[in-house]
Amino acid sequence: MVATSTDKLEAGTVSSYDRLSEVKAFDDSKAGVQGLVENGVTKVPLMFNGGHSNLSEGLTKESNSKFSIPLIDLTGIHDNPVLRGDVVGRVRYACANWGFFQVINHGIPTHVLDETIKGTCRFHQQDAKWSDYLIDDDITSLHYTAIFVKVNTVDLLLLDIVIEYSKKIMELGYALFELLSEALDLDHYHLKEMTCAERLLLLCHYYPPCPEPELTMGSSKHSDGNCMTILLQDQIGGLQVLHENQWIDVPPLHGSLVVNVGDLLQLMTNDRFVSVQHRVLAKHQGPRISVASFFRTDTSKVFGPIKELVSEDRPPLYREISLKDYMAHRYPSGIGTSALSHFRLHAILNSR
Predict the structure, then answer these.
(1) Per the CB 3.0–4.6 Å rule, which of 35, 60, 116, 141 could disulfide with 165?
(2) Where does the sequence pass through the membrane (predicted)?
């Protein structure tokens, strides 16, 4: 547990506040946010919002009910050309206008999804004693987080189901990259051959109930700095997408998965597809569980706008970069900041 007492962690109870010390004590405890909950915290600790600085951003949490995220049924995509053509059109629309969509009938059994959620929950609710297992190879890396506090171990409670889920999510990822390629009028293997699905990073998130959800966020607004993300969420809800300058709920739908375009795919498609900001609301209910699967390329591979998507009428908008280049400019600015603008050609020319 955090070294300081619970009352010192609660908002507004410390006249002289040392955030760095509180964050270090929290990290050193290895107990995560769940440890705070078990210790009876009744207010949002200042270290999570810099003294409720999120309020200055305007935490408008209401969703605009006029819009709803596209829902795409993947039934028949492997054996029915007519159904596949319809799905490709829906994927094209969703990626160009929303950057997000939900999929159903995706081929991953519901019991695998449910067990992945349950295993993540069990893992985070055990005592803060981490085992010695870690999966980290050329294909898959697994990390487990409690509000972005990383624990580089895999508990046996979760290991088996996550391995099974990872294999199935890779299969779905390959199928989705084929659909994305076709939606760009490219050969259906194009994005896979560009190694967009070469690496997979899984983040298993655990959001305990929040005592003061009106004062903070579960996860602040951000875009994903990868090629594509597939998200499994439980039934608590809280995910919102920024669409036409309005926050739109992504309602939980049992058995569905959420798919979104990452910053690198926006660059490669020369803005044909868009990577948009999203966030997670803090809630009284909980715990909220989600598992994010990030598809990414090798860090050293250099890529730019796909040449087939560039023409005299639609010139390249970005210079060629590597994932390493991109991340070097993304993380110093904070998790929510996209680095795409730094690599736009007009920005580079104007800076000279």
Answers:
(1) 116
(2) none
